[in-house]
Specification:
The chain is of the alpha+beta class and 95 residues long. The chain has a domain of 56 residues. It is 26% helix and 23% strand. The strands form two sheets. It has a three-stranded antiparallel β-sheet, covered by helices on one side. It has a two-stranded antiparallel ribbon with strand order 1-2. The longest helix has 16 residues. The protein is elongated.
């Protein structure tokens, strides 16, 4: 039985619905950021994926601060958002 998302003013709920009930099945596309796209001396190979932008940005900022020594600022979060891609990280990236 497929699982459907139903948006409400108070949040999102999951509903198991029988076939032909009138709900439209929507596939959620993953989002990711891939450190391999950014040149660095450490040649970081980490790729981070999530189902929503906020969760992805929060995780990517934590990684960037802890591993790469960046500072968590509103301007840095804007730059992180520019690096978001839809889908899943590729097995390799163009050099």
């Amino acid at each position: 039985m497929p699982i459907y998302f139903r948006a409400r003013a108070t949040g999102v709920s999951l509903t198991a619905a029988p076939e032909g009930c009138g709900f439209q099945e929507v596939e959620m596309e993953r989002l990711y950021i891939d450190c391999r796209e950014f040149p660095s001396d450490m040649k970081c190979t980490v790729a981070i994926a999530a189902d929503n932008e906020k969760e992805l940005v929060d995780a990517a900022v934590l990684h960037a601060v802890a591993v790469h020594g960046h500072h968590d600022t509103p301007e840095f979060r804007v730059e992180i958002r520019k690096a978001i891609h839809k889908g899943n990280p590729p097995a390799s990236v163009a050099a």
